């Protein structure tokens, strides 16, 4: 009886609130939230963010135009554990983030033009602590944020699902980073990477 009632309610909901109408209102609220994001970041570029998304430090984010599916986290930490930082996230033209991407900066993260980012991707320029004996007496959340250097992703890069790009890394243009790869070192242009840690498995044609 319970399942029958739920089935009936589900069917009636399609008549009262059809899918096309619900999709219209969802898209409308996405556009409104995206405009709020644009105003708070003081940018004039085009942006469309599917809800929900999460932002810290709007004033440190610059972009030209990008799109994101739901679950995006953009975090610019200018203060943590009483220490001040000068973070920035810069996003170029025609950038697309898939679901549940996390980009965190205390230094600088720059993403070039025409970059495609898969789902569940982490791009960070910092870690909790120094990863040595100085951190042993502190829980991870109470350790200082430390950056080895910025992250720069050049133009026309394709980043696969579940990739982690860690601090002090430059990803060369026209590179492909395979699913589940952990990038800890610079990537030459036109490279195909895979593995943990990342290794070059192929070099694409280079006409330069």
What does this structure look like?
By secondary structure, this protein is an alpha/beta fold. The chain has a single domain (1-201), classed as UDP N-Acetylglucosamine Acyltransferase, domain 1 (3 Solenoid), CATH 2.160.10.10. It is 18% helix and 33% strand. It has two helices and 23 strands. It has helices spanning 2-16, 19-41, and strands at 46-49, 54-56, 61-63, 65-68, 73-76, 79-80, 83-84, 88-91, 95-97, 102-105, 108-111, 116-117, 122-124, 127-128, 145-146, 151-153, 158-159, 164-165, 169-171, 176-177, 182-183, 191-194, 199-203. The strands form five sheets. The protein has an eight-stranded mixed sheet. A six-stranded parallel sheet has the order 2-5-10-13-18-21, with no helix packed on it. It has a five-stranded parallel sheet with strand order 3-8-11-16-19, with no helix packed on it. Strand 22 and strand 23 form a beta hairpin. The chain is globular. It starts with a helix and ends in a 5-residue tail after the last strand. The mean pLDDT is 92.
Helix content: 10-25%
Sheet having the most strands:
8 strands, mixed
Q: Provide mean pLDDT, rounded.
A: 92
Tell me the overall shape. globular
Relevant CATH superfamily: Hexapeptide repeat proteins
Compute the number of helices: 2
Q: According to CATH, what is the class?
A: Mainly Beta
* Count of distinct strands: 23
Q: Quote the CATH topology.
A: UDP N-Acetylglucosamine Acyltransferase, domain 1
Helix-strand topology string:
HHEEEEEEEEEEEEEEEEEEEEEEE
Uncertain stretches of 5 or more adjacent residues? none
The appropriate CATH architecture is 3 Solenoid
Structural class: alpha/beta
* Rg from alpha-carbon coordinates: 20 Å
How much of the residues is beta strand, in percent? 25-35%
Strand order of the largest sheet: 1-4-9-12-17-20-22-23
Count of spatially separate domains: 1
What distance lies between the first and last C-alpha atoms, to the nearest angstrom?
69 Å
